[in-house]
What we know:
CATH class of the largest domain: Alpha Beta
Largest sheet: 5 strands, antiparallel
Number of domains: 2
Amino acid sequence: HQIVRGLVAVAEELGVEIEYNQEVREIVVENGRSTGVRTASGFWPADAVVAGADYHHIEQQVLAPEYRHYSPAYWDSRTMAPSSLLFYLGVDRKLANLLHHNLFFDEDFSQHAHEIYEAPQWPSRPLFYASVPSKTDPTVAPAGQENLFLLIPVAPDLDDPEATREKYYSMLMDRLEKHCGHPIREHVVYKRSYAHRDFVADYHSFKGNAYGLANTLRQTALLKPSLKSKKVSNLYFTGQLTVPGPGVPPSLISGQVVAGEVLKEIK
């Protein structure tokens, strides 16, 4: 979040005006060039368009069919990195035997991986990650309390009803209470879950993925979706589904590369 704040601060210092809550519904194209974007409130002209939203969403929903380079079959054939089931928790007591970062690899790694990539399904006995930032930063929780989140890597494109989320919450609580050696459930004062349908609702994330394309040989470097549209000369893409790949640093690098290309375009 501090990276976002930093980017906003630098942009505003340079005179950029940021329009919030303006979801782009259409990239308008004339004679092979984008003339701007359309939102619910009107048309915004542009010399070049940089799409930082989910690549699949832009190509398949925001661009007209004749300007799409990648087909639905192409996207369906992609191997996606995992999605995640997350729980954000506030606990009104201190938690024993936990550090800031905790990896619970006490179950079968190969089985969990198989249930992500080979036979996509909810994992039978998942590995998980627990982050307790209040262990190192006392400002993120009231005195004597803890702020934590739990993350289970899961296959993309799964249904995630509340009953399923609660099943895994109970499973993680059992393991955490055993590890910590004291009750936790009864001390949870804040709880929020986040999974596939949230990634779709908030980010139009393809198949509810959390980490973009899997890093396979056939999906690396130039074999990833292109930074530049093949059919709209001044349309560019950034983010985790294009070059160089998933993660915050690579996504920032994609923006840096595209910025250089846009400068060439408009000069």
